[in-house]
Amino acid sequence: MSACGFHVIATCRIKSEAEILALKNELFPENDNIDILPVDVSSYESCSSLINKVTQKYGVISVLINNAGITADSSFKKMSLDQWQSVVSCNLDSMFNMSKLVFSPMCVQGWGRIINISSINAQKGQFGQANYAASKAGILGFTKSLAAEGASSGVTVNSVSPGYIATRMVMKLPDDIKEYIVSGIPVGRFGRPDEIAHTIKFIVDENSGFLTGSNIAVNGGQHMF
Ligand code: CAA
């Protein structure tokens, strides 16, 4: 997004200033168009304080990418209430919190893009992910509903459903499970984060104003429907 001329506010879980500076130097060295700010997306108050800070400095937010997500995989028989609540709260409540604060000003402005990151496992289900799949499937219904409300105000709302991407979340899976997963991906490899970024760039584009309420699956052919 920075390369597209936007000033980007990336967020991370609450960390000290020193840790945030180290993260910025590691991920975006010498890029003045990106700030990293701390937020707990599962807390409405924390999101509200973040959005106040950002809008005071930069004005109305034009693009919101809801991509915070965690896993707490477990077969359902063993899944604890905390594993359920923490995942739903981070992955799904966050979407309410952030969109609630950003959507109305976008509508008044008459232009906006909201992109919600779902998952292949929202669409196909996954052993050990009743919590994660439920949260990611909730995103799909939320997206279509908000798209209907934003359409007449120039605000598009879409979702992207990545397959297995070579992120820390996926790479921490045991090797035998990773090998099994790759064997089921027709493209023959995990996806790359930049391939998801490329899809988001397409949705954000000025010429994508007729694309709304859609879900784009980017999964190497692992799940076609
Ligand atoms: N399908 C069917 N049965 C399975 C299974 C599967 N995928 N995985 C395990 N089982 C069976 C085992 O064979 C075993 O059966 P028996 O009792 O008859 O021997 C039983 O289930 C074991 O059950 P447990 O509750 O003891 O399972 P576990 O503790 O060994 O492991 C798990 C469960 C942690 C969920 C593990 O299967 C796992 O890590 N699976 C991968 C989950 C996954 O794909 N996560 C994606 C993370 S990345 C992400 O989410 C990003 C994204 O959007 C794609």
From TrEMBL:
Coiled-coil blocks: none
Recite the UniProt keywords alphabetically.
Oxidoreductase
This protein's superkingdom? Bacteria
Q: Name one Pfam family in it.
A: adh_short_C2
Question: What are the GO BP annotations of this UniProt entry?
Answer: monocarboxylic acid metabolic process
Q: Example GO molecular function term?
A: oxidoreductase activity
The UniProt family comment states: Belongs to the short-chain dehydrogenases/reductases (SDR) family.
Spell out the protein name for this chain: Acetoacetyl-CoA reductase
Give the species.
gamma proteobacterium HTCC2207
